[in-house]
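Suppose you are handed a protein chain with no further information: no name, no annotation, nothing but its sequence. What can you learn? This example shows the usual starting point.
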Amino acid sequence: MYFVEVILPLSLAKTFTYCISEAEFHYIKKGMRVVVPFGKNKMYTALVLEVHQNKPTLYEAKEIHQILDEKNIVTEIQLSHWQWIASYYMCAIGDVYRGAMPSGLLMESETLISQKQDVFVVESQLSDDEFLVFEALQYQSSLKVQDIIAILNKKNIFPVIQKLIDKNILVLQEEIQESYKPKLVRYVRLNAKYESNSGLSELIETLKSANKQREIVMSYFQLSASEKKPITVKKLIETANSSSAIIKALIEKEIFEDYFIQEDRMNFEGIAQEEHLQLSDAQQNAFDEIKESFNQKEVCLLHGVTSSGKTEIYIKLIEEYLETGKQVLYLLPEIALTTQLVGRLRTYFGNKIAVFHSKYNNNERVEVWNQVLDNSSKAQVVIGARSALFLPFVNLGFIVVDEEHEQTFKQVDPAPRYHARDAAIVLAHLHQAKVLLGSATPSLETYFNAQTEKYGLVEIAKRFGNVRMPDIELVDLKDKYFRKKMTGHFSDTLINEITTALSLNEQVILFQNRRGYSPIIECMTCGNVPQCQQCDVSLTYHKHKNQLRCHYCGYTMAKPTHCHSCSSVDLTTKGFGTEQIEQELISVFPSAKTGRMDQDTTRGKFGFEKIIDSFKNREIDILVGTQMLAKGLDFDNVSLVGIMNADNMLYHPDFRAFERSFQMMTQVSGRSGRSEKQGKVIIQTYNPNHNTIQQVTVNDYLGMYNEQLYDRKIYKYPPYFRIIKLTLKHRDFDKLKEGSIWLYQVMSQNLNMPVLGPEEPAISRIRNEYIRTILIKIPQNTPIAGTKKTIQKILNSFEAVAQFRAIKVTINVDFY
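A reasonable first move is to predict its three-dimensional structure. Written in structure tokens, the prediction is:
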């Protein structure tokens, strides 16, 4: 008996055993995909973990359905890495597999419905809906579920299908469909009989009266003379300024032949420049120190102030690793950044760069996956957001984690809730590669690791080209409102500075970490605020669409004309978001061109490119945005940055609020004055004497670090304690309360460490589910693996209690 152990792309912690033949036993390798039946009649793409001869004791092993690959598409190192993520972040291995693979490689069964053969059907006994399905099957052999939804024009079609199955008219069959299709490009060439000189004169004679066809043939000759490479139909139509109908006519006359070539979607026409990158003295010193540090340590932190030229150092290091034939992974926190960086790196590495993130479609991601697996020259350097970590590297030598402090490196939902920076360090260890963490405002944990000499530390204190750090000015909003020196949400100081910048043809960035027009609409008569029906939050007003919107579940309603509680028409907006600032700018600076960059304006694959390009090309004078702006973007003409309200970051109920505020404000400030001229930053705040704001004005990272570290030690937070956060959700308030108290009590009895909770979070209901959280603080010197085992055991017994089974528990390890 031969068996195969597989991982299924479902949230299941264990692997499953299926039986195979002896021939399959010798053919199947670890890391191949096989299609297996699971459950009643579902098929899934499973991943082979190992082949063996141990019969499962608890169940009868089913047979596999088919083998999908000729060679493994997941490497052994990847499998070890995935198992580490599953155990460290306490999630199912199936979750990691589903999260890691591009969904184009994870086929699921498409249920096909066909008519039973040789069955006599009495049509008069069918209902209208049943008859429509039956009739459709007379014209085609099978229908998918989606087709039937379209035919009946309703979502709930399963009762209809079920009745037809019961009447013995239909059968279901499960079909696995490969969803990845290579991109084919259509080319044309001249028919062989016209290749000779006599053939050419015959051709021109034939087309004497067909002017448009003759033009296309002439364009074809011009292109083939100048380009010396195959000619695509698209290019020929563009050059001749013609249409595909005329090319079709030429193919029918057998003058042209068309043919198809499979082409990569990610084709970058970048040409590497020959010139070498010249580092400044400060950069060269940092570069040498990093290489020195890599002799002793696997990880090094590069702490360089904003605009100190960290990217050039990365490029120089990447060059060295590429010369040894290694692959390089460059991780970025934000898709907006990849847009800008790819352009910069393309000038050095030409076509060696592949990009991998969620804005690319399935087929493009599958292509990058295969290129990395084949160690193709097109994917020597992979740039991507956190998911690029899961690619099948075969020869990884170096990982750069840029802006390592960013919270977007931590995945929140769904599982695996991993932190890309920490997972990258483990991946590098498995490949015996080196990791460089870069940031102007490192996270406290990373800086702590560097101070305790776990990581190497290299610092650059000066900006590139000795440009001075921006001049930061604080504006006291209390005072400005009192003196009536505010226009909308702009102080007179900010307006004067914007006017000056615009008169010098310089650009301005304004930062407000809230999208929409205003977060609250309030009735001035009774104080009622429209709330989301499914969540415990007020609805944000979006003026552009004239609707109120919940930013948690997406619920929307039209903007009310009167209060729903007391019918008063006296409604007012409170607070402000990016949309409102954009509106105010238009009225204060009517001649300036404004742009907005937030989640609402960057939808779609090239959403970021459009805005970043038009700002770089100076088509936008003032750019308003949320935290997307705070991340390493490089614009050389920005002389002024305005932070509209520094306080809404400071007073978050989060132990990282001060650290995050410092990082955010410093990073936003760093967008200013990146070329010759010193930039200016205006921070509007109600609390100018706040310690963190003062530290930002003098760029005192160490002061902030020491102050926060002191607090963290007293209150038992990272880096002195590790935190595991359990979130419990259920629709029934009382049942959730009872379950969370039970779990908390068992945890605090069995764990010899601080357990806090069960707490109602600031937003205690989302999508009609009530929420409770429990925090477990694990001291640094306690072995974490044993603690996790205990927690898992307690959670297993929690699930075994019948009345708590419906409560969803999610585990977030290293909760950030």
